[in-house]
Q: What sequence folds into this?
C-alpha cells in the first residue's frame, strides 16, 4: 500500500504569490474559496506562456505556433477529461463556467426534449445558475418545475425525491455539493433512482470538482458541469461533460465559426462533437490555465484535498460554537457529508457587519445570499455569512476567524 | 476593529429612532437592496404646507443600513419636502461619520434612496400612497 502524504497548507501557500502580500500587517486568511479560489503561480505562467510565445488561433493555422496552440488546447481538454473521469475527451465541451454549461444544456437539449406538461426536478438548495435556466425553459415550453426540499440540517429529503420521481420527470438536475450550506448530496444513489424513473440527470459539480475526487462515469450522470475558477483555474474556464450519444443528438448551442462542417448561404452541416458546441475562437489561455490548475491539484492528490478540508470542517464545527456562543451554523453538523463550507449567522450582528469587521482583521468571508435566495428563504434568513476552505487554508485561519467573531459578538453586545 | 463602528451607530442599530408604523401615513415607500436582503419601509405624515410632521420606518438589515435610516428619519422630522429633496449622499456619510467601503455604500444609501423616491413620487402624485 502506498504511503499517502497529507496535504501541508504551509507548503502549498509558497506557490501562491498572494500570500507574500500583507493585509493590515498580516497574512490574508482567505475564507471565500467557495466563491472563487486563489491561483497558484503555475496557472498564470501557463497562460502567459501561451499569450507571449505561441498565441495563435486553434484548429486553423497551418504553421508551427498554430499547431502548438492546438496541441495545448486539446491537451487541456484531455486533462479536464481525465480529472473528472470522462472516458473520452470528445465528451468535454469547453465553456466559460458552470452557468454557461447549464444554459447550454437547457437551450440545446432542453428545447428539443422538453415539451408541454413535462417535468424537470431540481432542489431547493440550488445555486441560481441551476434554477433560472430551468425556470426560463419551463416558461417557454409550458412545462413543470418541481423541487426536492431539505430538512433542518440541510439534507435533501429523499422520501420527497421519490415522490417527485413518480411524476416521471424528463430531467433531474441537482448539485453534488451545496455552495450555500456545504451539504454533500448522495449523488450516485440519486442518479440511479432518477434513471430508474426514466429521467436523465445533470449534476452540478461546481463545488465538487475542486474539493475531492470526481468520476463522472462512476457517478452515472448524463450531464456534468463545473467552473474552472473555483478549482485554481482562471475565470472564463469550465466544462460541460455529457455522454457522447446525448451530445450527438443535441442541436448546436451557438452558431458561428468552428462549429461547422460545410456552410452554404441557406443551410449548414455541423462539425462533430465537441466542436459543434464551441462556436467562435475559444478562450485558449483560460483552458490552458485551467489545465495547469488541475495538474497542480493532481500533484497534491484529490483524496488528500478532501481529507484536509474534512479535517478543517470537523475542527470548525467543534470549535466555533464553543468560542462564539451566539453562532448558528446552517447545514449538516457532521463532517462526513459536509464540504469545506461553514455558513452561519450571529445572534446580534448582521452578516454584512460581520464581513466588514472581519475584513479589518484580514479575514475574507462572503456575506449575503451566496446566489441561493430560495435556500435562504427556506432557512428563514435574509442573508448569512460563509467561511469556506481550500488547499491553502489551515487551522490557524479558523482560530483567527473564531477570535474575530468573538470580538464582533462582544462589540454588538456592548452596553446592552 | 472596535474603532470602525462608533458607539452611536451601534446604539442607533440596537434602538433605532422612529422605528414602527404610522396609522395613516401620507406616503408609504418600500426600498430594498436585493444584493444583501436589506429592506426598509418608510412612512411619512405630510401636512398641507408640505412639511413632514411624522415619520416612521420598519426594516431589516445591517447596522449601517438601519443606523443610517434611524439618523435620517430624525433629520427630516419637521422639515419641508423642498428642503428634504436636497439631502444627498454626503449628508448620510456625515451622519455615519465612519469609513464606508464601496461595497457597503448600497447599505448606507438605502434609506436615502427610499426617501428620495418617496419625495419624488409625492411631488409627482400628491395625495397618493406609493410604492417603489
A:
Amino acid at each position: 500500500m502506498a504511503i499517502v502524504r497529507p496535504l501541508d497548507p504551509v507548503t502549498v501557500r509558497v506557490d501562491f504569490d498572494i500570500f507574500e502580500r500583507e493585509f493590515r500587517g498580516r497574512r490574508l486568511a482567505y475564507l471565500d474559496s467557495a466563491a472563487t479560489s486563489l491561483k497558484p503561480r503555475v496557472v498564470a505562467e501557463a497562460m502567459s506562456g501561451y499569450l507571449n510565445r505561441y498565441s495563435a488561433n486553434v484548429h486553423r493555422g497551418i504553421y508551427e505556433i498554430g499547431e502548438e496552440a492546438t496541441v495545448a488546447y486539446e491537451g487541456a481538454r484531455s486533462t479536464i477529461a481525465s480529472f473528472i473521469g470522462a472516458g473520452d475527451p470528445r465528451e468535454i465541451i469547453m465553456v466559460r463556467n458552470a452557468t454557461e454549461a447549464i444554459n447550454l444544456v437547457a437551450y440545446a437539449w432542453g428545447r428539443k426534449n422538453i415539451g408541454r406538461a413535462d417535468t424537470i426536478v431540481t432542489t431547493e438548495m440550488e445555486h441560481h445558475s441551476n434554477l433560472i435556466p430551468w425556470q426560463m425553459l419551463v416558461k417557454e415550453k409550458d412545462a413543470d418545475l418541481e423541487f426536492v426540499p431539505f430538512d433542518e440540517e440541510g439534507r435533501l429529503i429523499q422520501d420527497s425525491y421519490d415522490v417527485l420521481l413518480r411524476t416521471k420527470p424528463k430531467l433531474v438536475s441537482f448539485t453534488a455539493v451545496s455552495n450555500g450550506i456545504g451539504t454533500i448530496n448522495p449523488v450516485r444513489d440519486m442518479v440511479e433512482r432518477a434513471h430508474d424513473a426514466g429521467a436523465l440527470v445533470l449534476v452540478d459539480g461546481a463545488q465538487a470538482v475542486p474539493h475531492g475526487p470526481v468520476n463522472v462515469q462512476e457517478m452515472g450522470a448524463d450531464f456534468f458541469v463545473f467552473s474552472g475558477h473555483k478549482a485554481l483555474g482562471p475565470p472564463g474556464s469550465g466544462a460541460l461533460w455529457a455522454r457522447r450519444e446525448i451530445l450527438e443528438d443535441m442541436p448546436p448551442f451557438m452558431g458561428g465559426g468552428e462549429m461547422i462542417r460545410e456552410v452554404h448561404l441557406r443551410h449548414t452541416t455541423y462539425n462533430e462533437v465537441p466542436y459543434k458546441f464551441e462556436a467562435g475562437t475559444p478562450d485558449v489561455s483560460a483552458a490552458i490555465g485551467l489545465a495547469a490548475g488541475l495538474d497542480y491539484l493532481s500533484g497534491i492528490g484529490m483524496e488528500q484535498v478532501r481529507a484536509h478540508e474534512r479535517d478543517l470542517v470537523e475542527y470548525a464545527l467543534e470549535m466555533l460554537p464553543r468560542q462564539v456562543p451566539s453562532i448558528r451554523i446552517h447545514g449538516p453538523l457532521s463532517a462526513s457529508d459536509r464540504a469545506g463550507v461553514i455558513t452561519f449567522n450571529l445572534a446580534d450582528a448582521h452578516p454584512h457587519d460581520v464581513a466588514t469587521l472581519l475584513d479589518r482583521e484580514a479575514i475574507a468571508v462572503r456575506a449575503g445570499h451566496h446566489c441561493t435566495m430560495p435556500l435562504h428563504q427556506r432557512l428563514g434568513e435574509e442573508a448569512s455569512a460563509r467561511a469556506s476552505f481550500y488547499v491553502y487554508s489551515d487551522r490557524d485561519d479558523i482560530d483567527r476567524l473564531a477570535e474575530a467573531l468573538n470580538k464582533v459578538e462582544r462589540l454588538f453586545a456592548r452596553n446592552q | 476593529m472596535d474603532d470602525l463602528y462608533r458607539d452611536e451607530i451601534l446604539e442607533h442599530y440596537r434602538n433605532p429612532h422612529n422605528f414602527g408604523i404610522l396609522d395613516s401615513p401620507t406616503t408609504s415607500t418600500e426600498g430594498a437592496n436585493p444584493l444583501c436582503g436589506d429592506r426598509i419601509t418608510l412612512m411619512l405624515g405630510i401636512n398641507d404646507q408640505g412639511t413632514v410632521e411624522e415619520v416612521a420606518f420598519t426594516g431589516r438589515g445591517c447596522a449601517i443600513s438601519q443606523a443610517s435610516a434611524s439618523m435620517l428619519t430624525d433629520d427630516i422630522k419637521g422639515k419641508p419636502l423642498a428642503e428634504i429633496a436636497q439631502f444627498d449622499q454626503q449628508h448620510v456619510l456625515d451622519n455615519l461619520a465612519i469609513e464606508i467601503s464601496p461595497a457597503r455604500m448600497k447599505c448606507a444609501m438605502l434609506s436615502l434612496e427610499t426617501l428620495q423616491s418617496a419625495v419624488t413620487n409625492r411631488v409627482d402624485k400628491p395625495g397618493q400612497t406609493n410604492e417603489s
